[in-house]
Write a structure and sequence with these properties.
The complex is a heterotrimer of chains A (394), B (524) and C (370). Chain A has 12 helices and 13 strands. With 394 residues, chain A is α/β, with parallel strands linked by helices. The termini of chain A are far apart. The chains are: A alpha/beta (394), B alpha+beta (524), C mainly alpha (370). Chain A binds chain C through residues 10, 13-14, 17-18, 20-21, 24-25, 28-29, 106, 131, 134, 137-139, 182, 185-186, 189, 191-192, 346, 349-351, 353, and chain C through 111-118, 121, 124-125, 128, 131-132, 135, 170, 173-174, 177, 238-242, 245, 252, 255-256, 258, 264-265, 307.
Chain lengths: 394, 524, 370
């Protein structure tokens, strides 16, 4: 009887298959983690009409605590390199020539555009690369900077290891807008709200910082018209804009009650807003309904907030304060910027698709004529740990 | 196409021819055994023949004496006999007898006060029983002999099984003596339905093999199947139950054990109550349970002794450990060399930094460390108990620490290997743990060549293999695949005692009801 | 019979769920978004009409010929020559469609995750595993899909739940902006997937409980429609009008998942788990192709065919398309007609002939009796 039975044959065949696969599998896509240069942030600068300058912030190896090589202290854990090219892809290819390790975009978190660049050339063609590449992600945050993006990446901060990390944390605080590549690309679709991107710059105030370190500050919001940036808003207006986008969170509102010299500050714990469109007899109107629940965090007046009617009057004044902020934003957008970043477009499309279709093509003109109504509600829920007031100095 | 058909037919024919040939051989052997020599009336001739067939072995003792005037001789193997009782219960009464011409029957009835006794005619039976530890009484002028059962040998006392310790539960374990083992089972299941069938296996060793089951609870078909598989065995010797296990498995090429081994009588009793069949082998403290599923290999008897919520959670964790033991190093390799984006930025950066000085690719590093771990584990078993522990600690601490410091491996890899190793030891059955540990190596290689896709292909291959496995006709992954909703209560969780009203469907026989329902306790 | 194993109707449904959803879930959102836009979540529900028809035809034909598959009973219905021809047509169809499926799998894996790995290796790896299962028979295929189906359902559920914080639920308003027609147009592509349900004709003879076949297959179809509808909805809520520009919207969606800045970039895990679904799909087609061929050739055993056909399938996967564009193009333009032709049109014709034949014979017999 032969040793090679049918069973054996079967297993030889299967074993053979696996062997073929294993042997033929060289290691095509295998990249050791030490042959990778981790790109943490990307900056895109204006470099003439037809070219861009791409800067990347790359992690230096051996600079984390776990490296255990003693490095770190005082050493900058990242460095910045830049190259030019007609497209992002070409610039990356040119950059790669300078790197012995493969540039890896999987951990890229921010993309910073130079203001001049977005005003002249727009963002779409560059972001297209990032939405197509299997390495980069559409979740990456987008920023516009007043100065050079490269300078911003080179800046060293006190708290975080890299500019990219600083920016990522900054966008998570909800003080300014939080905009990802997806949001920008979606905004570029013609039926959507216009794009608004947070604007940042290296802080000019270097007092108190160590030598060679610069903090980064939020300046406001860059407002787009189509693909290109057209105008910008300062931080005060940006806070108002957040109301329209229903992204307001932990804002502080301060009022000066008429009866007294001092101020009362309230912290919004929970805030919601809603745009309610209406069309009556061809009259287009939109109501912004803003409701917030607040805590009083400072009271430098003589008012006793533990009394119901005092508290109610404070609530009314807070409402007026918020409303003023909203009016300011609407005035600015409707009269100066003339680009619908407020989201009226979507609101009308949802409720009145037929009428909306008529004005769809010249919306940015049309929307400036829409009447805006304000419905602001403030509820003060708590007064903090002490409910005292300032004693009058008599 | 006709060619293909003819080819298939030919294959079938060949197979049948082979089977017939085997059958013929077996029959011939049986016939040979039947034709055996009768004992002679001449006692001296019988003694001479016995001496010859044992080749003058020195431990065969012949004590000749006379009953009245006729000559007699008692033959036994000195190490296997209770000589005190031979003297007390056999020699003394026989030698004191004065009457002449006893018949054998009379002797057995009146003189020899031993409970296990029988009469045999053939020479073959005499020597087989002698080798088996029985004593033979030969008498002048009789064509038959009396076989007396007064065995005695040195044996280990009952101890706690070292490989399957529990915090809560019985502490006794099986020993090498099959009679003791059977007695332990009987003591647990005091019912006439507990059936014990003994057979001999091994042409030379003549080892006792016992099939135990509970009548009516175990499926009759299963019992027949086990018996027929045991009868098919034809080897020279059975030294441990492992020999039998290898010869009765369904798929001999599988890395997974298809028979459950345990040293614990409580486990065996529990399985018998679920309709499984136990196979005990003399000389081995490991008793086999068939059929078995992959889940029973991952269960510990303690699951049933502890509170059911704890049992369920521990079971789930154990399933997780299996996944870790199988996949953790390969996931590490795949993520590090293919999917670097998967880890949070700070984590991947610190891993990258710790690997900065390591000369090997992650794949080689993983294989190296896993190998190292297997060496330590194997050495730990072989070394004497007193040294073993020291080597384990020294090996782990010194080699791990020194290797990281020398920059041969990275610290995260040491952590990965250690976690993998420890979770593989959390699998209650050693043989299941070891097959999972061995499968880790091909998967690491797949992970190193195709990343997560490779791991998944490897896992699919293992799952397909497990799905195709059967243990004595029962699907290895049952009751999960194929799905048996009623039996899942004891696989995905450990249902409370008062909910396990029926026996598992796959093993059970006619007697399905396990207990009265509605036994949920509570204040009255 | 050629296959000794028996499966239950539930198991058949468990095979069919990943068989249809595995590739559909990747590509359907993008294809339907193009024509259905905001109402794309409705399209998978319209498409079920084809699915119901396919199930009905397969089961009805099986009732006439309980032990046979279409490759066998086509000869009984329309004569030996034409029957064999139809059988051959089905074999070519299975061969081609398996190639397309394998290609979809390979394009997805290679394109997104392991770009430099040669496609033959990726395909051969999968075919090797599938061959292993096909050789082991229908029972093993059913059992392994029983183990993998929780994974497939889990990833769909998991992705949808984790993305809820990112979704903008107002995006799908207004409903039916362009009337109901765009969503019906969007279902044209999806119904091609549903007509793959006719694959059950090869499994029906192996069922141990045929009575419940209708029930379970219909449940399976509804679950598929609901799953697809939910994925379409989720991707649109996440990407809005961008959906149609994405190659694999669901994967783009998983790339968007981020929980606590720790649990992110998990698309590779989703890919690996999806491969389990792709395995079931490829194995199901592979198995039917092998069984169909063995039945067409009237072989007593199908196992010797497994490895040769495996090699053929590797090649057909490599030849099925030149590029991803071609794959997507054929999904959008060819498959909506091609699949229903074999999934519904031909079986429909066969069923009518078979029914007529039966009536004629019955009439003939009754006239003879009279």
């Amino acid at each position: 009887m032969s040793i090679i039975t049918d069973q054996w044959k079967k297993y030889c065949v299967i074993g053979g298959w696996f062997l073929v696969i294993l042997l033929s599998s060289g290691c095509w896509d295998r990249v050791e983690v030490n042959d990778i240069a981790f790109v943490l942030g990307t900056g895109i600068d204006y470099y003439g009409e037809k070219e861009i300058e791409l800067s990347i912030e790359v992690k230096l190896p051996g600079t984390t605590e776990a490296g255990g090589m003693g490095g770190g202290n005082g050493d900058q854990p990242t460095f910045v390199q830049s190259a030019t090219g007609k497209t992002v892809a070409e610039a990356i290819a040119n950059l790669q020539m300078r790197f012995p390790r493969k540039l890896f975009w999987g951990h890229n978190r921010v993309i910073i555009f130079n203001e001049k660049f977005v005003r002249e050339l727009g963002v779409k063609q560059e972001l297209e690369y990032f939405s197509r590449s299997p390495e980069a992600r559409t979740r990456d945050k987008v920023f516009v900077t007043q100065g050079k993006a490269k300078d911003l990446l080179t800046a060293v901060q006190h708290l975080e290891d890299s500019t990219a990390e600083t920016l990522r944390e900054l966008s998570g605080t909800n003080i300014g807008l939080d905009v990802s590549i997806r949001d920008v690309l979606l905004g570029l679709k013609n039926e959507e709200t216009e794009v608004a991107v947070p604007m940042i710059a290296v802080s000019a105030d270097t007092e108190g910082t160590a030598e060679g370190k610069n903090e980064i500050e939020l300046l406001g919001t860059a407002v787009f018209k189509g693909n290109k940036m057209s105008d910008w808003m300062n931080m005060r207006l940006t806070r108002g804009l957040l109301w329209f986008k229903n992204e307001i969170n932990l804002a502080t509102v301060t009022i000066a009650p008429e009866v007294d010299d001092g101020y009362i500050s309230a912290l919004m714990i929970d805030a919601k807003s809603e745009l309610i469109p209406e069309i009556h007899d061809g009259q287009w109107k939109i109501t912004i309904k803003a409701i917030s629940e607040d805590d009083i965090i400072q009271n430098s007046t003589e008012l006793d907030l533990t009394e119901m009617d005092v508290l109610q009057s404070v609530e009314r004044q807070l409402e007026v304060e918020i409303k003023n902020r909203l009016v300011e934003v609407v005035d600015k957008v409707q009269q100066e910027i003339k680009s619908d970043v407020l989201g009226f477009n979507e609101a009308f499309r949802r409720e009145y698709p037929e009428q909306w279709h008529e004005h769809k093509d010249d919306w940015n003109q049309f929307f400036t004529t829409i009447e805006v109504d304000y419905d602001v509600k403030v509820y003060v829920r708590r007064l903090g740990l002490s409910t005292g007031k300032q004693e009058s100095e008599e | 196409m006709r060619f293909l058909k003819r080819f298939l037919q030919k294959r079938q024919q060949k197979k049948q021819q082979r089977l017939e040939k085997q059958k013929n051989q077996q029959q011939q052997m049986l016939q040979q055994m039947a034709a055996d020599i009768q004992l002679s009336t001449d006692i001296n001739e019988n003694i001479k023949n016995i001496q010859e067939s044992f080749h003058q072995s020195s431990d065969i003792l012949f004590r000749t004496f006379s009953i009245g005037s006729s000559q007699a001789c008692i033959v036994y193997v000195s190490g296997l006999t209770n000589e005190d009782r031979i003297y007390e219960n056999v020699l003394t009464p026989l030698m004191e007898a004065t009457e002449e011409a006893h018949s054998l029957q009379e002797l057995i009835e009146k003189k020899i006060s031993v409970s296990e006794i029988k009469q045999v005619q053939t020479f073959h039976e005499v020597i087989n029983d002698l080798a088996g530890g029985f004593q033979a009484l030969l008498l002048e002028g009789h064509q038959s002999a009396i076989i007396i059962g007064l065995p005695k040998w040195e044996k280990r006392s009952i101890e706690e099984p070292t490989a399957e310790q529990v915090v809560r539960g019985p502490r006794e374990g099986f020993t090498e003596t099959i009679d003791d083992n059977i007695s332990m089972l009987r003591r647990r299941i005091r019912s006439p339905r507990l059936t014990i069938q003994m057979k001999k296996s091994g042409a030379i060793t003549n080892t006792a093999v016992v099939v135990a089951y509970i009548n009516g609870v175990a499926n009759d078909k299963l019992v027949t199947e086990v018996n027929s598989r045991l009868d098919r065995i034809n080897i020279d010797g059975v030294i441990d139950s492992g020999y039998i296990e290898e010869l009765i498995e369904d798929n001999p090429y599988s890395p997974f054990p298809q028979v459950l081994n345990t040293e614990r009588p409580d486990v065996i009793a529990a399985y018998l109550l679920e309709g499984h069949v136990a196979v005990l082998v003399d000389g081995s403290p490991f008793v086999m349970i068939v059929p078995t599923t992959i889940y029973s290999l991952l269960q510990s008897s303690e699951d049933y002794y502890e509170r059911y919520i704890i049992g369920t959670i521990i079971r789930w964790m154990r399933y997780l450990f299996v996944v870790i033991a199988l996949l953790f190093p390969s996931l590490y390799v795949a993520i590090l060399t293919f999917h670097q984006e998967m880890l949070p930025t700070t984590l991947i950066l610190s891993i990258a930094d710790s690997r900065e000085m390591v000369p090997f690719p992650a794949l080689i590093e993983a294989l190296l460390m896993e190998m190292m771990f297997e060496i330590l584990r194997e050495a730990g078993i072989r070394l004497p108990k007193q040294v073993g522990q020291a080597v384990g600690i020294v090996g782990a601490l010194i080699i791990g620490e020194a290797a990281v410091r020398a920059g041969i491996v990275s610290a995260p890899m040491v952590i990965v290997v250690a976690v993998t190793g420890i979770s593989s030891f959390a699998i209650p059955r050693f043989n299941a743990g070891i097959s999972i540990r061995m499968l880790r190596f091909p998967i690491i290689i797949l992970a190193g060549s195709l990343g997560l896709l490779g791991i998944m292909l490897g896992v699919i291959a293992i799952v397909v293999h497990l799905c195709s496995l059967r243990s004595f006709g029962m699907p290895y992954l049952g009751p999960l695949a194929p799905l048996q909703l009623k039996d899942i209560k004891d696989v995905l969780m450990r249902a409370p005692r008062w909910k396990m009203d029926t026996r598992p469907h796959l093993t059970g026989g006619t007697d399905r009801e396990r207990q009265a329902s509605n036994q949920q306790p509570g204040p009255n | 019979m050629i296959e000794k194993g028996r499966i239950s109707s539930l198991q058949l449904a468990i095979i069919m769920y990943p068989t249809i959803i595995a590739t559909a879930i990747l590509i359907v959102p993008a294809v339907t978004a193009t024509s259905a836009g905001r109402d794309m979540w409705l399209s998978p529900l319209w498409g079920t009409v084809t699915g119901f028809l396919s199930i009905f035809l397969a089961i009805k034909l099986n009732q006439y010929y309980p032990d046979k598959s279409i490759v066998e009973y086509s000869s009984d219905i329309i004569g030996k020559f034409f029957g064999k021809l139809v059988g051959l047509g089905y074999l070519f169809f299975l061969f081609h469609i398996s190639g397309v499926i394998i290609r979809e799998y390979a394009d997805f894996v290679v394109g997104l995750f392991i770009a430099q790995t040669p496609m033959p290796v990726v395909i051969a790896g999968m075919i090797a595993v599938a061959a292993f299962a096909v050789r082991a028979g229908v029972e093993v295929i059913a059992r392994s899909s029983e183990l993998f189906i929780p994974i497939v359902i889990f990833i769909i559920f998991f992705i949808l739940v984790l993305l809820i914080p990112e979704m903008d639920f107002l995006k799908i308003q207004p409903l039916f902006d362009g009337g109901i027609w765009p969503s019906i147009k969007g279902s044209a592509t999806i119904q091609a997937w549903y007509s793959e349900f006719f694959l059950i004709t090869f499994f029906l003879p192996f069922l141990s409980d045929k009575k419940r076949a209708v029930k379970w297959n219909v449940i399976c179809l509804i679950l598929i429609a609901v799953s697809l509808s939910f994925t379409n909805l989720a991707t649109y809520l996440l990407f809005g009008a961008l959906t149609e520009e994405l190659s694999y919207p669901l994967i783009s969606a998983t790339r968007y998942i981020s929980v606590a800045d720790f649990f992110e970039n998990i698309e590779s895990v989703v890919m690996a788990l999806w491969v389990a679904g792709a395995y079931v799909k490829i194995t199901a087609f592979y198995y039917t192709f092998v069984i169909g061929t063995a039945q067409w050739l009237k072989l007593p055993n199908y196992r010797p065919l497994v490895f040769p056909i495996g090699i053929i399938l590797v090649i057909s996967g490599l030849w099925a398309a030149q590029s991803f564009t071609e794959v997507k193009d054929s999904i959008g333009k060819v498959l909506p007609f091609y699949l229903p032709l074999f999934g519904t049109a031909i079986p429909f014709a066969l069923l009518i002939i078979a029914a007529l034949k039966k009536k004629i014979i019955a009439a003939h017999q009754s006239s003879e009796q009279a």
